[in-house]
Automatic annotation (TrEMBL):
One cellular component term from this protein's GO annotations in UniProt: succinate-CoA ligase complex (ADP-forming)
Coiled coil: none
ATP-citrate synthase/succinyl-CoA ligase C-terminal domain span: 122-234
Residues of the CoA-binding domain: 1-63
Swiss-Prot/TrEMBL GO biological process terms: tricarboxylic acid cycle
UniProt source species: marine sediment metagenome
Pfam families, per database record: CoA_binding, Ligase_CoA
Keywords: Ligase, Nucleotide-binding
The protein, known as: CoA-binding domain-containing protein
One MF term in the entry's GO annotations: succinate-CoA ligase (GDP-forming) activity
Length: 258
């Protein structure tokens, strides 16, 4: 539809018109989604503008957004009925239907990594979203919708937020999660599953076991850095033992199956 950048309105980038703001777009009422790629200090203003113009799906690619700004964004989004994916998210894709953001990279690589099918993917890592999809694709297993939810300490859509959507989706027959230390998202999901049960089989890949063996060394996304000591691999894995049966493949990798 178009791009926005204050002071650069009137330009044309590969056939895509550039505007100073969303309000200048003649067809703004037909905009379904917005991708936010601006420096962290400007993310809040960019997202507020999108929400004010009634855009209901917003993908924030920028990482390390100030947490206070993220909280304010999520409060406004909840008030206005908007869905936030990110911060620190590469986007989402429904193979053969639509793609939002930079997930999967160039179109040729996307076609190699993703194929239409019935397995949903929710991942805290953008790169691992595509890696997991490709691992499924080469085995002939297609994907329904794959979402990179973001690696910042606070994100707009968590595992629990998205799980009901997948459970209602007739195109999704199973769900695969990529989990990592940092935050309480996995523990929250485990408690939710134990309390409410599931309508879909869930496979969860838990990364980061080696990190517990290297105290004082920080790995991964901003979430794992900011929450160091609160959610280690050991505590994360323990939280899954009640609702989930696990298969131990090697000292670095665990596959958890509900």
């Amino acid at each position: 539809v178009g791009g926005t950048s204050p002071g650069k309105g009137g330009r044309d980038i590969y056939g895509v018109p550039v505007y100073d703001c969303i309000r200048q777009m003649n067809n703004r009422d037909g905009i379904d989604a917005s991708i936010v790629v601006v420096p962290p200090a400007f993310v809040k203003d960019a997202v507020f503008e999108a929400i004010d113009n009634k855009i209901e799906l917003i993908n924030i690619v920028t990482e390390r957004v100030p947490r206070r700004d993220t909280v304010e964004i999520l409060c406004l989004a909840e008030e206005r009925g908007a869905r936030i994916i990110g911060p620190n998210s590469l986007g989402l894709i429904s193979p053969g239907k639509t793609k939002l953001g930079m997930i999967g990279g160039p179109a040729e690589d996307v076609r190699k990594a993703y194929q239409r099918g019935y397995v949903g993917i929710i991942s805290r890592s953008g790169g691992m979203t595509t890696e997991i999809a490709f691992s499924l694709t080469i085995k002939g297993i297609g994907q329904s919708t794959c979402i990179s939810i973001g690696g910042d300490p606070i994100v707009g859509s968590t595992f629990i937020d998205l799980l009901p959507l997948y459970q209602k989706d007739p195109c999704t027959k199973a769900l695969l999660l990529f989990c990592e230390p940092g935050g309480t998202m996995e523990e929250d999901l485990a408690e939710y599953v134990a309390k409410n049960g599931l309508q879909l089989p869930i496979i969860a890949f838990v990364a980061g076991r080696f990190a517990d063996k290297m105290p004082g060394v920080r790995f991964g996304h901003a979430a794992s850095i900011n929450w160091t000591g609160i959610n280690t691999f050991a505590t994360l894995f323990k939280s899954f033992t009640l609702p989930i049966i696990y298969l131990h493949f090697n000292e670095y990798t665990h596959i958890l199956i509900v």
